[in-house]
Queue: 2 jobs
Job 1
Amino acid sequence: MNTLTFPQPPEWLKMARRLLRKRALFVLPALLLNSALLCAQSASSADSAQTIQMLLQRIDRLEARVAQLEAAQPSSSAPASTVAATTPASAPAVSSSTLGAVASDLTGPQQEMESEQPGSPEERMDVSKTLLRIRGFGDINFHGDTLKGDTTSFTLGQLNLFVTSDISEKFKFLSEIVFEGGPDNIYGVFRGENNAFAVDVERYLLQYSYNDYFNVSVGRFHTAIGYYNTAYHHSTWFQTATGRPFLFQFEDRGGILPIHTVGASVSGLIPSGALGLHYVAEVGNGRASRAPLVEEPVQNVIDDQNHKAFNLALFARPEAIRGLQAGFSVYRDLLAPVGSPRIGETILAAHAIYIRPNFEWLNEAMVVRHAPLGQSHVFQTPGFYTQISKRFGAYRPYFRYQYVNAAANEPIFPDVGRQQGPSAGIRFDASESVALKLQYDYTTIRNQQAINALAMQVGFTF
Amino acid sequence: MTRSIGRWLIIAVAATCLLGVSYRSARAGAPARDELNPSEQNLAIIVNTANPLDGLSMSELRKIFLGERSHWPNGRRITLVMMVPGQPERKALIREVCQMNESDFSRHFLHGLFTGEVFVSPKTLASPVGVRKFVFNVPGAIGYVRATDVDSSVKVLRVDGRLPDDKEYSLRIPPPAAQ
């Protein structure tokens, strides 16, 4: 049999009632006594009666208030968490991105003290919020040159969505998703439509950071050959000039280096005191070498052979000269083009750069060696660039000279030949996030007429 | 008439001189702001009380606040706590420790995150109380507040062997006019 029961009033309500009754018991006689004395003293009985009446009315109002609170009892006995959630005013203004980190960091004895901190409830991770952070980079260009067949055009550059996520204290996800238009140029062979856009996942990395000396990344990354490749990635806004040097052009833009690698990378500091030595060791699929070469040059899914590419880089950032970085790298792979013997590929690179907020000087040199197995001849492709710039307020004039010289019968990139020439330009930072650049290039190419080019670019981050 | 004008001029000049002298002597006699409270304008580097470190060199501090060091010696990840842009404490830290301006600092961190060298971006909080609470709650946190805003919930690190109350402490917040 169901019985109808009323919820018991909370303890505090009972106490309030008791106090009210006690108060009435003590107050009323006192008032009566007081009023009697007043009557005796002043004989103003009418006033006393009025005062008593007012006090009685007040008691009535208080009792009504108690009844009202009793009626509201179910809603007022809400969980303590609701109460806690209503106290964010005194909590620290933690940005949303901090919430996950704070939650993961609250461990051990500190957690016990959490309840003493008014801000702590807000610092818990909110599972309804995404942990993704997205930063965008883009550029729009206006370009004209004297190369036969080229037209002066407005060009949409790469639209780069840089996505990161702090998965945990030790793990992080990082990717660059790039939308880019125009045909691919793979070793001089063009494919794709002129004006169609395509999407490339240029970086796709899971990073694990054990400490400053040992970090592991797996996925698709930029190969640590030299400096430029891992410093600027797919953002023109970060770069001083409108584009990358010849040497570091992307694989699908006529570049000669294995810019991207799919594999694993280990990096970190080497205990070396003020010398500031760092290392990077990478292993991956290497570049595609099997015909037809117009296919995707980065082996994202299937390697065309079991042999893996290796890269080792060492560099120093000495404390004595802040902004200086000098180092070298050695890359080794075995390419297997169809119809020809395997080719051993070795890329030796060295760099010395000096970057301060108002000044930069980049210098890199390398040689790409292709040694067909069973042949004594080794094809060497040397290249270098130097770039210098100085900031004057919002303006940064810059100069670059670059050179690359591949043999005409180079087995992997026969189209490159010898290219060299200066570039001069000026960058104007219109705001913290928008840069306007104007650049002139003069490029000489073996067996061709020199090319004059003028480019304007607006690069931005958002 | 001329004589009275001259007399008044002499009186005015004398009064001006007297006033000037008394003002200068009053200023010379009054203690400077620093003498009143040497730590008032100093910036304290604070960490969680569980952090075993007691001090850092300026060079180490710079590496930490530029994201070039991501872990404490005990293996715990460093969580940087910055105040929101525009706060004098933040300006002082960026200028004195990082040797940059606000724009360069932002760009540096964005670039570091972009290259992957900086593992996590700094947490940004609005007030010294918020910074203190965050550092109190997060064992790997490091932040900064005015020395006068420090309480027992956090630990103050020595910088180059000196505490904010020491004479030759190097991290100072300049008065607003100098910023």
Job 2
Amino acid sequence: MDIIIIGLLLGGTYALMAMGLQLQYGVARIMNLANGELLIAGAFGTFWFFAASHASPFYALIGIVPLAFVLNWAIYRILMLPLVRRARSQGQLEVDCILSTFGLSFILVGILLAIFGGEYLSYSYLAQPIFILGEPYGLNRVAAFLGSAALCIALYVWLHHTRAGLSLRAVSVNPSAAGLVSINVTQTSALAFGLGGAVTAAGGGLLSMFLTFDASLGVVFTLKALIIVILGGVSDIRGTIVAAFILGLAETAVATLVDPGLTLAAAYVLFMIILLVRPEGLFGRRST
Amino acid sequence: MTDGTAPAVRGSITLSAREKRNLAIAALVLVATSIVPLVSSGYLLSITTSIVFYTALATSWMLFSGPTNYISLATAAFFGIGMYVVAWGIELMPYPVLIVLAALAGAALAVVVGLATLRISGVYFVIFSLGLAELVRQIMTWLQHVLGTLSGLYVLTDRTDEMYFWQLLALTGLIFLVGWWIGRSRLGFALRIIGNDEVVAVHSGINTARAKVVLFVISSTFAAITGALAAPRWSYVEPTVAFSPFLSFQVVIMALLGGVHRLWGPLLGVIPFTLLWELISAKFPAQTTLLLGASFLLIVYFIPHGVAGLIEDTLRQSPIASIRSALARWKSRNA
């Protein structure tokens, strides 16, 4: 029972970061390997805000989210767009994106190391028990879950009930056809990329409430987010949420039953299974 | 791959004049380099050792990622496995046996990874390789925890720096030889087609999955052997060092800087980068990660085909080349 509840709480927070990556990969078509570093940057920002002001970390998100949006929007316009223009094929673009965002991830790690140093950081916020079904759980985990759920729902509603959300989904389905119905694909992709980054950084801020982190942890989160997105099916937001819960549960189960140091192995096992059984993802459609 | 001529027919061992010339040059360079430990033992030896070390890793990386365009970010995983096999067995078995075991362990991991991901699409392979070193590190740490051994292991042998250098050099020579052989074999031809257009490759009856897996295994085995050779030199092996993501990154950056479409390409990247790196890590020890990332971006944006590509472009446009091609045209008209 413990495993299920902690797993669900963790999965809810994972859902947010995976949605960020999904916006970047599913809509803007950029495989962003620096995604996890951005998440860690969000966590560092929240840590710094909390250490300086002792106000609720939720307030930190008010500053981090717009900042991350602008930063990612700029990354897309300045770094990614030249690659999109120079690429002769989707494959070429993928290789270039992988390489440049891989380089970017090291730059981000370098900046974080320069500012915050290489130690493990954590802070104590809402570190009191809350009782669910008679068992105690960390209130900070529950708070992070609720924050993440609120943002997920807001994002879902925005995607499905506004015109901007509709154009984002159109680009996600088919960029060239979206261009034909007078959607500005470049602008929409930049918006999706920026938004994805903002959502990821928010996920990092929420995760920092109960997680110990350091500058080099980004790659692990990039990997988890990628696995969630592939598990769910690249262009389906429902799949992403379901997959995030599956990963949260699997990781918690492994951490409790086997060893807390093996969470990445749990993610890899899931990845292997999905590759062997259903490479298009839970909710994905088989490409022709 | 060594030159622009069409791949030779399978089974033929006749060499063209050009191939003979290239082989002779390669052998000469190899012999010239092997003299280094005899004339110097200080700085020159250590920097040449670094260059040979990274040439071995970058060239073996390029064997797979060059023709297929599948970026492998997992060099450190195979390198670390090779290192760990030696660290674990050094008290139990003679060193040469351990090198073979390390190669087998690396190959086994590559087979698993290759079979799981290379049948589907390049993106999955990249994602899988991204966290592979971290995964293996976690499993190793856990295994050591379960078995109750210490997390750091000492590898104490009586091998000298000179022996280490010659071993690395021999391995590098072998890698070049294998790379050259692949380039003129059917396998290499198949891989170039896969790299150009995988759909075309499938339709021409190439078993693309098999070709990719075979090459990935070859490339990863060499990385594992390099790890096995490096273990005695590093003398202290622990998970964070053996599976450092930094190593994977350095290998990719050097190969890209040199150019991945020629066998000698990575070498051209390794030499300047190693020298530059000595300078950076001496002057800005705290900012190495940042500077490494920045130089990586510069290469991706401004030298997408590497130094080898730059050289070939210049040669193509040079007056000598235009005279040569004019001569060739004249010859063919008179023939």
